[in-house]
């Protein structure tokens, strides 16, 4: 039988008209911790259990023994206790308020909160001057209804009084308590707490959200999550749902589930082919495909995709898989987290900047205008980033973009290939893109209020943060019938303030850049008999703070022709940016094949050289014969070349060729043609002999190129 302790705790708290924030303050724990006691995900310590029993004026047996009912104490004035609405907060340090805003904050200090019946004046500062205008009408915040305080017993000393206290507990109740502690907590060494990591999953046929209370809300073709009762992270792409437990063990449903012996795990990541775990020692556990990670050390982040696994160590990206992307990864530095889709690898660096690397022939996206990004996702034709102010950056699919750009106050995003989902600060699930399996419904993932809460003020929602180098400002939607708000933030000293307006301004000097803060807000009414204080709204905010402009390094990139000397292009490129290749060069007899060297993500002076492949030409046989058909010479020449005939030295004769010499275009036989260069006296040419030589007839002499007789001499 499950423990009735959480329900008893809720019943007693509401009976005494306490809020969750009130009891958390009494117990000296964060409100998020107390909420776990009420939802049964965590049990308080023995000393805290004793304090609860004393606060609610019930015995320890009644509070914890499942077999006993709680008798609600009489709330008559003479028997009741004082609600510690102000007494607990008297020593809370004030958060300084920066002038220049129209809202007045009422800090919780003794001088301001010992009597809430006092008149409080709101200062109004005009938009154009710093003059303070005091309004004629004043705002009065009434003190909550007080109940007579019961005299507290002296603080219990463990060594002297604990045996006496335990002696007053019934044997059955004591055994029940001890057994519950041993069974639920005795064998566990919780090393993990729920945070913003792996809270929202977008898989092919379903989505899953891990709430702050540890509940998993699914949509679509829901996976089996009955074993995920202690999960603080979830991860999936479809075939496998992986869960990380508080104690560092891992649960799994689907395939690649050989994880039962994993322990001391701090982070998980699952794809359809691989399950990954990051251990406390910063090594990686892997089951499934692409598990060549045994030598990875000092890993800060892991990611599993269907085509390989990634790790980040000191800002550098490691990879084991089937894609040929190592050159691209080697140029990356300062990487904090990454994600992938079918077509893209998206990285987020330490300064909140996003870089998109295509994994296929797809073009990348321009993201250099995105700033202060805290989370990234990718689909097959889009990428998105969650800004620290709750807005969403988007590039790609225009139909999805039109919907996403209307979103605000977002705290988590996730994406699959064809759709994107988000959870906003009101715990409303939003979605855009393919919804074939009803993966998202655009409905609240918070429990529906019951009739019992019908008079309770609505929870504070739509909390927005804006910051500059001087202040951090919070605003939220006004709650109907609320007269003031109590805001707590875990800066140094755990400051708590009350304000009659729906805003708060904090001096940036109180905050540490790049730090996550938890903010809780509760709405109150002056008429507590009619309206109960709202449930606490708790949000986490990553304060960025003033970020110094990093010095941009420049490097020289030179593109050379094949000889490594002829400069084709010389460029100065920002560190991490890509150079632009010049037009393809031309080289006679060769085909340009590309560039030797990496000119993407430049990190040093770089030399790039053109590469070519020689064009292979056809060859033909060329034959030269004399005029009688006797062979003189044979050559094999490339197409287009001019053949050179053999040298022919003939007497008084010139040599030509038939056919006429020309560029080689096929197999060709050339025959010599002899022409005499001397004449007879009658002007006719002498005929060559069989060898191609030309001589004057007998009885004549060659004079000036003419064969003349004796009388002509």
Set out the fold topology.
Elements: H1 5-15, H2 20-27, H3 31-39, H4 46-56, H5 60-64, E1 105-107, H6 110-113, E2 119-120, E3 124-125, E4 132-133, E5 139-140, H7 158-167, H8 171-186, E6 200-202, E7 206-210, E8 216-220, E9 231-236, E10 240-245, E11 250-254, E12 265-270, E13 274-279, E14 284-288, E15 301-305, E16 308-313, E17 316-321, H9 326-330, E18 335-340, E19 344-349, E20 354-358, E21 373-379, E22 382-387, E23 392-396, H10 398-404, E24 410-415, E25 419-424, E26 429-433, E27 464-467, E28 471-475, E29 484-489, E30 495-499, E31 503-507, E32 515-524, E33 537-543, E34 554-560, E35 567-574, E36 590-596, E37 606-614, E38 619-625, E39 631-638, E40 653-658, E41 668-676, E42 679-680, E43 701-703, E44 706-708
Helix pairs in contact: 2-3
| Strand residue content | 25-35%
Number of domains: 5
Number of helices: 10
Radius of gyration: 43 Å
**CATH fourth-tier homologous superfamily of the largest domain:** Regulator of chromosome condensation 1/beta-lactamase-inhibitor protein II
Based on the coordinates given, report the CATH architecture of the largest domain: 7 Propeller
Q: Output mean pLDDT.
A: 81
- Assign the CATH class of the largest domain: Mainly Beta
Instruction: Give the end-to-end Cα distance, rounded to a whole number of Å.
Output: 148 Å
Number-wise, the strands total 44
Strand arrangement across the biggest beta sheet? 1-30-29-32-33
Q: Do you know the CATH topology of the largest domain?
A: Methylamine Dehydrogenase, Chain H
The low-confidence parts are: 76-172, 181-188, 444-454
